[in-house]
Specification:
The chain is of the alpha/beta class and 257 residues long. The protein contains 10 helices and 7 strands.
Amino acid sequence: MSGLAIVTGASAGLGDGFAVELAKRGQPLLLVARRAERLDALAEKLRAAHGIEVTTLAADLGAEGGAAQVIARIGGRPVATLVNNAGSGLRGAFAEIDGPAQSAMVRLNCVALMELCHGVLPGMIAAKAGGILNIASTAAFQPGPWMAVYYATKAFVLSFSEALHEEVKDQGVKVAALCPGPTRTEFADAAGMGESALFKYMGSEAGSVVRDGLAALDANRAVKISGVANALMAESIRLTPRGVARRLAGSLQKSRS
């Protein structure tokens, strides 16, 4: 499709990977993240490698009005693909983590994602074409004590994406939720988990997660859990009593504190 592809959180990790893969498809790109220098460097690389249009927007989607900046930049241009990749996580006891920082995490992980979907969907429905890929997590499948708000935001992303998939699947629009497990990106370090054994020895490579996500969107698969071990774990949670699931998740997160 000739419409614009938008990637949020594009300055590193999965976002960088999604931008590269979409550039290979020849789609014009709008890359969004907070770090302007990184965005500009990536944009220059993609223009040189693929001869495509790449624009950037340095915006904090965790701040009030962040998503509105993206919609304003689009300016009514048709959007073919939206990858809602931007997200953050904080680890520790809920009562001890900075309150405004947790509110910003909810705005970034949930509110901005929802607002961006709402901003592009009418155009996609009118064109009977387009796709939205929302990045959730295997954290979406159970409560996560000691990462309570992060786990809850990802449960929102998963539920919202599945509902949206059902609403628009007969209107030519694709919606998929990608649920990675631990992935070796800057996110782990920012969330204070980069040195954990889980990320060091069991983390997935970002490239495989990106490919899984785009393949799921192409196939209009409502939910894709990236990685066989992650899929088995997530499916087993469905059969596990909730009390057991939350205690297991809580013990894992608390041991990292």
